[in-house]
Specification:
four-stranded mixed sheet; alpha+beta; 2-methylcitrate dehydratase PrpD; about 10% strand; two-stranded antiparallel sheet; about 475 residues; 60s Ribosomal Protein L30, Chain: A
Length: about 475
């Protein structure tokens, strides 16, 4: 039986301006400054987040925070590289050929591109094979859009590794708070990585561009009105879900570039009477959302995936494998399996008859059966041969799914599942998996994260190049340039 990511052993070692942006003194040298609004409780939530993006304080340089930012970047590249050689990223390269082979930004395998195109394609690629990070309280994958935008802007502006990491932290801290405030109501119909992700991208890009608080506010305001991504888009086989992340990356970067040029947005577009909070949620508590900004760092509380599929399947997978390890039953001994978990897991990943790899990644019965038969749910679980495996299909037919009210009430802060296996000799074996392997409560170690990276990157880059890139990523805080 395969253990999690068990591969090579690698050494790892302000104030806010008026409704129009203030003149950019660094370019014009003008002494004129637009009127400044004092930081009071009359500020919109956009202005609060923008003030942080423009001046995040010394906390972003704390060694622990920087280390977690590097973990996020390592994990992002682990997701990016295999996604870069699959559709839709490969198809986008064809569609956007006029924007490639020029510019300072780069795609995953080194091809040059304009910054916006790099953000779009890399953001899409990083969300394609379903191994990218999660901030569970926001039901959101921040890395795919946020890091794609930060990297594209950083490569274009030729910033240092430390400036890049600071921008990534800013993007995570702003967007995860917006996502958590929007809550479960938002997730009912919207894909948070598309909607919330655009704020992560805009905040990170604004930090790279060194926008002041006024321009950062307009970047966030502009991206807010363009935020999109529907849940229905990934209830069947399509390429829309990863494209949501790519468009969020591109849209956030565009909003920051536009704000830098003087484009303005509506600063109350999030918390206004007809704003994002009311239109797409049930009235978020924005004051609470910003309360810990600059004091608590959400980037230190990320979930890094331990399986190559939808995160809503993970607790059930982990619980089933734990039962199998503890009681040592074979697949042939299983009569039936019952999974009781939280509602959105069944809404998003309840597909009982997946026909394609994309659908199988969102099928809890398929993931469970694959785990019990093969001991893991890696990329190999989604090959045509596995999809047609009669043993997997037979076991799937005996898997029952149900909502557990207590586990449902604990979502999204807790992602738990209760797995019950009935054997042919009459035993009923039960296991409550309280969290997922990879959650902050049971995190992947740096060594496990390295193994994950090498498993996913080496088949594309080669073992030597993958190892070299991994070492560069761990040294980003001392790098004068970006990979």
């Amino acid at each position: 039986m395969q253990t999690p990511w068990p591969f090579q052993k690698v050494m790892a070692r302000s104030a806010i301006g008026s409704s129009r942006p203030a003149p950019r003194r660094r370019r014009s040298g003008s002494s004129h400054v637009a009127p400044v609004r004092a930081q009071t409780n009359t500020m919109t939530i956009i202005e609060t987040f923008a003030a942080y993006a423009a001046n995040p304080g010394a906390g972003v340089d704390a060694p622990e925070v920087i280390h977690h930012a590097k973990r996020a970047v390592v994990d992002w590249y682990a997701a990016l590289i295999p996604g870069a050689v699959e559709a839709p990223a490969t198809l986008l390269e064809r569609a956007l050929a006029d924007d490639l082979d020029r510019g300072r930004a780069r795609l995953a395998l080194g091809r040059s591109a304009s910054a916006r195109t790099a953000a779009l394609i890399n953001g899409t690629a990083a969300h394609t094979v379903e191994v990218d990070d999660i901030y569970k309280h926001a039901i959101y994958h921040p890395g795919a859009p946020t890091i794609a935008a930060a990297l594209a802007a950083g490569q274009q502006r030729q910033v240092s590794g430390m400036d890049f990491l600071r921008a990534v932290i800013v993007g995570y801290e702003v967007s995860t708070r917006i996502g958590a405030a929007m809550g479960r109501t938002h997730y009912r119909y919207w894909h948070n990585t598309g909607t919330v992700g655009t704020f992560g991208a805009a905040a990170a890009a604004a930090a790279i561009l060194k926008l002041d608080a006024s321009r950062s506010a307009h970047a966030l305001a502009t991206c807010a009105t363009c935020a999109a991504g529907l849940q229905q888009a990934f209830r069947m086989d399509s390429m829309s879900k990863p494209l949501h992340a790519g468009r969020a990356a591109e849209g956030g970067l565009l909003a920051a570039l536009a704000a830098d040029a003087g484009v303005t947005g509506s600063l109350d577009v999030i918390d206004g009477d007809a704003g994002l909070g009311r239109a797409m949620s049930d009235g978020p508590d924005w004051a609470a959302a910003a309360a810990t900004l600059g004091r608590e760092y959400h980037i230190t509380q990320m979930t890094f995936k331990n399986h190559a599929c939808c995160g809503h399947t993970f607790a059930a997978i982990d619980g089933a494998l734990a039962l199998q390890r503890e009681h040592r039953f074979s697949v042939d001994e299983i009569e039936s399996v019952r999974v009781a978990t939280y509602g959105p897991a069944l809404e998003v990943a309840g597909n009982r008859n997946p026909r394609t790899a994309a659908e199988a990644r969102f099928s809890l019965p398929y993931a469970m059966a694959s785990a019990l038969i093969h001991g893991s749910v890696r990329l190999a679980a989604f090959t045509p041969q596995r999809l047609a495996d009669p043993a997997i299909r037979a076991l799937m037919s005996g898997i029952e799914l149900q909502v557990d009210p207590r586990l449902d009430a604990a979502f999204p802060g807790q992602r738990a599942a209760r797995v019950t296996v009935r054997t042919r000799d009459g035993r009923e074996l039960e296991y409550l998996q309280p969290n997922r392997k990879g959650d902050p409560e049971e995190p992947l170690s740096d060594a496990e994260l390295n193994d994950k990276f090498l498993e996913l990157a080496a088949p594309v880059l080669g073992a030597s190049a993958a190892t070299d890139l991994l070492q560069r990523l761990w040294q980003l805080d001392s790098a004068i340039s970006l990979p």
